[in-house]
């Protein structure tokens, strides 16, 4: 792995926009999606962005708040106005009536005994049962999505945190090692290199280097030595200037990255979304929902435990209301965070864009300019080392130059250590070169350390090493895992809030139904009608029963009716009453004597006593 290997491009990873990012982008109604305005925008631009950002969150929150207010209003109205929506128990519906169970008495009996029989209604068609079925279904949904919130939403979010943590650990190690190389491998050599440089400058002074012939016109060996040493001196001077300039900027950039990585590592290390502290917030959703469902099943079978009722009314239900409210708030907040995350991963809502644009844009928003080393470094890695500006180019160029100069100095050392050539040069220049030999050795050592330090430093910041960290952090953690997490958390929170409110709305389902008395139909006749009936009795001298003749009775005379008795078809829904009296048995709609109309639900005995039924639709029994 080396920064000098330009042919290796396997580290480059194309950006694939996550589907969840486009789903959570939301509707902005023409407002900007540029997340960079949060860093660099004016107040008007920030307000515009926030307005578009809050739309979905506000709509979601208003819906839930309105629902909650309606529940409070229903509770105040009471059961008489809104029924079980007030939270009061259901009333058992009025029982249905048995009709086709009449029996005939012997024909010689003069009267018919009558009695109302009732049967209970179909329990599966009652309002209470339908409400309990919906309540149980909602409870299952709450339990299911609370589990999904933990297994999908929080798991994806924890994956995001873990990825960022791992990346921050690697970055911190790189920055620590890089700063150590700069401070010990480069800056610590500065004083030593300066001392060697001063000594060499003195040794290479024309009057000092070769007093016998300062111009070295007639010494090829002297010219060669002088040329190589001068090149090494220039390189040391450039390196010293680089240490004061670009290398210092590099060190400051590494220090900033190290501090940020350390902060991220500490925060992510303390974040455990799947630990017991987080699970203790999700377990009540399943436990409380299960207990409420159990109480609902018992209420269906009219079973109740006083202790459980007290526990539900004073602890479980209030806790469930608070947790449902928390889910509604979580849905609204998640909508905001998810929209910001989507804007970062899809700049401008364009699915062909990448977050690299926003990464560089944030650097500009923070006040960096084109010539800043930090900006050039971030852009270089954000563009996956395809940028025309390589901030490490000066360092890269120094390494081969230092290697060439080191080879040249080795040639000088060979000359100075060749006895014949050294003797010739000493004789020609009329001086000893022992001190120069020692200083060249020192320079050679310095160049060796510099080459090794720069090579290690460049390897640390090579594209093959940094780009995978960048893509893991930005592409995977910040855009892929996080958008999935936000999507699942938002959906689960919406479902938990909605079905939790349904369970709260139908809270009467887990309460025992109360008895309701069946309503009695009015049977008393009006005063005018009664006076007419009384006149009929006086005029005709026979007891009458106020029943209106039916088409069946008018067309078909009663079968096997004994003298003095008319029996109306008991299967007819309109008339179920018989009477006795002195009437004709001819097959005519009415007897010759006046027969007042009969009233449903009543009949007359021989002593003209009226017996009123409980209901209008009674049946004949023994």
TrEMBL record:
<comment type="similarity">
    <text>Belongs to the tweety family.</text>
</comment>
<protein>
    <submittedName>
        <fullName>Uncharacterized protein</fullName>
    </submittedName>
</protein>
<keyword id="KW-0813">Transport</keyword>
<feature type="compositionally biased region" description="Basic and acidic residues">
    <location>
        <begin position="529"/>
        <end position="541"/>
    </location>
</feature>
<keyword id="KW-1003">Cell membrane</keyword>
<dbReference type="GO" id="GO:0005886">
    <property type="term" value="C:plasma membrane"/>
</dbReference>
<feature type="transmembrane region" description="Helical">
    <location>
        <begin position="485"/>
        <end position="506"/>
    </location>
</feature>
<dbReference type="InterPro" id="IPR006990">
    <property type="entry name" value="Tweety"/>
</dbReference>
<keyword id="KW-0472">Membrane</keyword>
<keyword id="KW-0325">Glycoprotein</keyword>
<dbReference type="GO" id="GO:0034707">
    <property type="term" value="C:chloride channel complex"/>
</dbReference>
<keyword id="KW-0407">Ion channel</keyword>
<keyword id="KW-0868">Chloride</keyword>
<keyword id="KW-0406">Ion transport</keyword>
<feature type="region of interest" description="Disordered">
    <location>
        <begin position="520"/>
        <end position="594"/>
    </location>
</feature>
<feature type="transmembrane region" description="Helical">
    <location>
        <begin position="313"/>
        <end position="340"/>
    </location>
</feature>
<feature type="transmembrane region" description="Helical">
    <location>
        <begin position="133"/>
        <end position="151"/>
    </location>
</feature>
<feature type="region of interest" description="Disordered">
    <location>
        <begin position="94"/>
        <end position="113"/>
    </location>
</feature>
<keyword id="KW-0869">Chloride channel</keyword>
<feature type="transmembrane region" description="Helical">
    <location>
        <begin position="53"/>
        <end position="78"/>
    </location>
</feature>
<keyword id="KW-1133">Transmembrane helix</keyword>
<keyword id="KW-0812">Transmembrane</keyword>
<feature type="transmembrane region" description="Helical">
    <location>
        <begin position="279"/>
        <end position="301"/>
    </location>
</feature>
<dbReference type="GO" id="GO:0005254">
    <property type="term" value="F:chloride channel activity"/>
</dbReference>
<feature type="compositionally biased region" description="Polar residues">
    <location>
        <begin position="577"/>
        <end position="588"/>
    </location>
</feature>
């Amino acid at each position: 792995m080396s920064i000098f290997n330009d042919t290796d491009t396997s580290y480059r990873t194309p950006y694939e926009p996550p589907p969840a990012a486009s789903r959570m982008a939301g509707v902005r109604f023409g407002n900007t999606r540029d997340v960079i305005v949060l860093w660099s925008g004016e107040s008007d631009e920030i307000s515009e962005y926030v307005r578009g950002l809050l739309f979905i969150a506000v709509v979601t929150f208003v819906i839930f708040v309105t629902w909650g207010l309606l529940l409070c209003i229903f509770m105040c109205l009471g059961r008489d106005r809104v029924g079980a929506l007030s939270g009061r128990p259901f009333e058992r519906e009025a029982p249905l009536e048995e009709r086709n169970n009449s029996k005939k008495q012997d024909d010689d009996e003069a009267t018919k005994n009558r009695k109302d029989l009732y049967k209970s209604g179909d329990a599966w068609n009652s309002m209470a049962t339908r409400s309990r079925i919906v309540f149980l279904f909602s409870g299952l949904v709450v339990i299911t999505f609370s589990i999904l919130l933990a297994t999908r939403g929080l798991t994806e979010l924890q994956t995001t945190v873990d990825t960022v943590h791992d990346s921050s650990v690697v970055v911190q190690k790189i920055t620590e090692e890089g700063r150590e190389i700069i401070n010990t491998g480069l800056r610590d050599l500065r004083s030593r290199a300066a001392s060697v440089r001063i000594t060499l400058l003195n040794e290479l002074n024309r009057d000092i280097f070769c007093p016998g012939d300062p111009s070295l016109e007639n010494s090829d060996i002297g010219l060669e030595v002088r040329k190589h040493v001068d090149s090494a001196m220039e390189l040391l001077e450039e390196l010293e200037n680089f240490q004061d300039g670009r290398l210092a900027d590099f060190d400051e950039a590494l220090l900033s990255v190290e501090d940020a990585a350390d902060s991220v590592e500490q925060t992510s290390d303390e974040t455990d979304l799947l630990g017991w502290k987080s699970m203790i917030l999700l377990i009540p959703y399943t436990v409380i929902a299960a207990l409420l469902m159990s109480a609902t099943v018992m209420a269906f079978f009219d079973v109740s435990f006083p202790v459980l009722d007290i526990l539900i009314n004073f602890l479980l239900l209030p806790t469930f209301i608070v947790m449902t409210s928390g889910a509604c708030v979580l849905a609204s907040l998640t909508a905001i965070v998810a929209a910001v995350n989507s804007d970062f991963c899809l700049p401008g809502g364009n699915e062909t864009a990448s977050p690299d644009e926003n990464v560089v844009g944030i650097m500009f928003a923070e006040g960096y300019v084109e010539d800043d080393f930090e900006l050039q470094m971030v852009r270089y890695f954000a563009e996956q080392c395809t940028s025309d500006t390589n901030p490490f180019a000066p360092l890269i160029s120094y390494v081969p130059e230092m290697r060439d100069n080191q080879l040249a100095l080795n040639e000088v050392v060979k000359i100075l250590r060749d006895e014949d050539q050294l003797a010739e040069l000493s004789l020609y220049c009329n001086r000893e070169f022992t001190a120069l030999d020692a200083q060249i050795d020192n320079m050679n050592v310095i160049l060796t350390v510099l080459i090794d330090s720069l090579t290690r430093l460049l390897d640390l910041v090579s594209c093959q090493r940094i780009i995978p960290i960048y893509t893991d952090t930005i592409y995977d953690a910040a855009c892929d895992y996080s958008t999935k997490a936000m999507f699942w958390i938002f959906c689960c929170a919406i479902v938990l809030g909605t079905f939790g409110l349904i369970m709260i709305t139908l809270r009467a389902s887990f309460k025992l139904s109360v008895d309701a008395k069946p309503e009695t139909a009015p049977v008393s006749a009006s005063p005018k009608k009664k006076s007419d009936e009384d006149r009929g009795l006086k005029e005709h001298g026979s007891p009458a029963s106020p029943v209106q003749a039916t088409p069946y009775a008018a067309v078909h005379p009663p079968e096997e009716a004994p003298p003095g008795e008319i029996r109306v078809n008991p299967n007819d829904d309109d008339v179920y009453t018989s009477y006795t009296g002195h009437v004709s048995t001819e097959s005519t709609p009415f007897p010759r004597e006046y027969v007042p109309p009969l009233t449903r639900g009543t009949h007359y005995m021989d002593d003209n006593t009226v017996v009123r039924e409980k209901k209008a639709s009674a049946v004949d029994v023994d």
